[in-house]
Structure formats: structure tokens, C-alpha cells
Amino acid sequence: MNYSQLIKQKAEKFGFQSCGISKAEFLEEEAPRLEAWLNKGYHGEMKYMENHFDKRLNPILLVDGAKSVISLSYNYFPKVKIDEINNFKISKYAYGEDYHEVIKDILKEMVTELQEEIGEFGFRVFVDSAPVLEKAWARKSGLGWVGKNANLITKKHGSFYFLAEIICDLELDYDLAVTDHCGSCRACIDACPTQAIVSDRIVDGSKCISYATIELKNEIPDYFNGKMDDWMFGCDVCQDVCPWNRFSAPTLQEKFAPNFQKLNFRKNEWKELTQELFSEIFKKSAVKRTKFSGLMRNINLLKDHSL
């Protein structure tokens, strides 16, 4: 068995939904797109997006002697959804434990097994934690296509999955990109509450509800008043309406399941949230990123400008 086959078998064993491999090289197509996106200010106050421009485009600057980018996807679609009736909404990716930690631990264990079988090799693992253009690499590696909502979509699984990468110095067999299957569909563009999808496959991040509720550290601009659709952390609208997500199957990863409080809280309970309770409910959650003050800012805005 060659190394590429072995890697894909290990990925399946460790619970990854799909695995593809592409050559580690400069992302020539992405360079002008990223530059134009930044120049238009679509990153809002996410100034970190301006940093490490070259590293985002060239994996060899992240891993010395890099030859391959192994792209992986991990399903997070929930078995049980949090009831949205009389409730503020949380993006499905944040139902359970923080995916950064969960998936990075799985990746490290997987690489350890690989090295036991094929010997030492140079690598770094990434889970949305460094200047890596994950969707670009996943597309090149054949995992799916970038849809009109700028998410990676697959015919078989939809788009409710996390992306991760292993950049390594192994020379491997490379996969081919898949074709685009959005066609004339505009479901995501038409459904976006804030018209953040400004054109085909281009999202103005500064108008996105996920940006406003997670990334933005200051007060939420008036532009969002009455458009938040009860989202207190993140937003799933453009994925929920995507026809390909009718094929989403529940994840087998128990760590991504919501805890008791998240399942049973409703608007009144969220409005009375305390710092102590926030720390308990979101102890291992990605929601910690917005902090108690940020989540209460979001909840108070929803109270004041409910639809």
C-alpha cells in the first residue's frame, strides 16, 4: 500500500468524513481574490486577516520542505437540534466542545500512528488556527466545491463539517478538484438576513451575523438592528437553506452534542445568564471566544430589536 492510501485509511479510522491530498505550492488563483477581498474591507475589524499574506498563500512558508497538503473534513451535524421556538439561536458548530481542541487531538493521534508505520516525517497540523486558506486547499484536494455562500459543499454530505489540514514533507499522490454543482440556485443569497453574500462566492464579512456576534469586539453597528433573526452566536441560515444539506447525516462524535443547559434554556433563561453560569455551560465551548460580555451584548441587542 502506498502512503496516500494509508493516510486515507487512517483518516477514515479516526472518524474523518473525507480526505484529499494536493501538492504544496503557491495558491496562484487565490492571491488576487484574497487581495481584492481585503482591499474592499470585507474582513471588517478582523485585522488579523491582513497579517501573514504570503503564508496564507504558500504552505512552504509554514512547514519547511512541505510537499503535500492533506485536507480533511469532520462532520458536526447534530443528532439533536436545540429548539428554536421562543429561543435565541446558537450555530450548530458551537453546540458541543470546541472543535479546535477536539479535532487537533484526533489529528495528532492519527499522525502518531502514521509515523509508527511509515517512519518520521516533517509536519504541522492545522484546525482553523493559523494562516491557512482551508477552503482553497480542500477544493484543490477534491473534498468539494466552494458554493455561492463561500462554504465548501459536497454532493454527498452538504457543508456541516469542519476542515483541517496536515501539511507535511511527504511526496504523495494528488487528487483532482471536483466540479461545481450550485447551478442557478440562489437559496443562500436570497435567505441571508443581512445581505452579506454580496456576489457569487463573495461574502462581505463585516455584514455577516457570525462576524457581528463572534468576531466583532465593539458595539454591533445599527445596520444589524432587526436583522439578527435571534442569532446570539454565529448563524446557519445560508447552510440551512442549501439544498445539498438535505444529505447531512448526524455526527458520531459525542463531544459535539449540546449539553443539558443548552438544550433546555429558552429566552428568559438566556436573559438571566450570569458570568458563573456562562463559565459552566460554555466551559469547553467555542462560545468562550465571545466571552460573557460579548454574549450578553448579543442577547441585549436581540431583546431590544427583536423581529
Structural class: alpha+beta
Please give the alpha-carbon distance between the first and last residues.
58 Å
Describe the main β-sheet briefly.
4 strands, antiparallel
Strand order of the largest sheet: 1-2-7-4
The amount of beta strand, in percent, is 5-15%
Unreliable segments of 5+ consecutive residues: none
Shape: globular
Radius of gyration: 20 Å
Instruction: Please report the number of helical segments.
Output: 12
Number of strands: 10
Cofactor: [4Fe-4S] cluster; cob(II)alamin
Pfam families: Fer4_16, QueG_DUF1730
Binding site for tRNA: 217
Pathway: tRNA modification; tRNA-queuosine biosynthesis
Structural overview:
It is found in: Cytoplasm. [4Fe-4S] cluster 1 binds at residues 182, 185, 188, 242. GO terms for molecular function: 4 iron, 4 sulfur cluster binding; cobalamin binding; epoxyqueuosine reductase activity; metal ion binding. It is a single chain. The chain is α+β, with helices and mostly antiparallel strands. It has two domains: 3-79 and 97-168, no CATH class; 192-247 and 258-302, no CATH class. 33% of the residues lie in helices and 13% in strands. It has twelve helices and ten strands. It is globular. The mean pLDDT is 96.
